[in-house]
Amino acid sequence: MEKFSVCTSVYKNDNPSYVSVALDSMLVHQSVKPSEIIMVQDGPVPEELSNLLREYEGKYPNIIHVIRLEKNGGLGNALKLDVENAKYDICARMDSDDICLPDRFEKQLAYLEAHPECDIVGGQITEFIDSPNNIVGKREVPCVNEEIYKYMRSRCALNHPTVMFKKESVLKAGNYQDWFWNEDYYMWVRMMEQRCVFANLPDVLVNMRSGLDQYGRRGGKKYFNSEIGIKRLMLEKGMITRKEYIINYVERFIIQLLLPNSVRGWVFRTFARK
Fold this sequence. Notes:
It is built from ten helices and nine strands.
């Protein structure tokens, strides 16, 4: 199958054992393994994590390439460097603490080969706490391009840790850029402007590490401004109507600014997850 790069990053708060499990899910347990993994070390990291990265570099010298930054520049900047330094035309996104299902890359490469018009393909995710077998939720997103475009008008329609895309298409849309908590959504909006073709597989591709307080944390003024900023951008570009913008604004104002963390977590788990 076609060679491809994986784009990922680590920073000081990443747990070395989680990073190891994530890397093994790509390098050991995949039916089709990456041709290279570009990993941006986003600023200084603790010694244990630094040693782990060097261990994997030594074990996979022709596959793992670590770009070490002196200062933390944020996820958007790290992903921008990932894409710019990727050797291959096809790139897959992966978080440093999640787990790829064994046939993830094989399925995505097969889809892109069968659908050359497609620019980016993602999939479904499950979410677990502590043990990969302790599944606590599943985020399902639409699979067809037209349905994805429609879903994007209110919520992000791609599970970011699952996507595989054509490097050329991402660069044409301006590559990843900084946008607090929403670097991915901002990227997809700009790809929509370029009329890129989206798809999601119906299969679960990634088991995503979660926590009891994950959804509860998705609140506060900074998070609200980030989310509504995306919708304001879509309004300005004619991608949503003013009515849709107002509905999005009100929903996010209530959920992210008015609700306490515990209630916000319940809302996300009940209405945004299975």
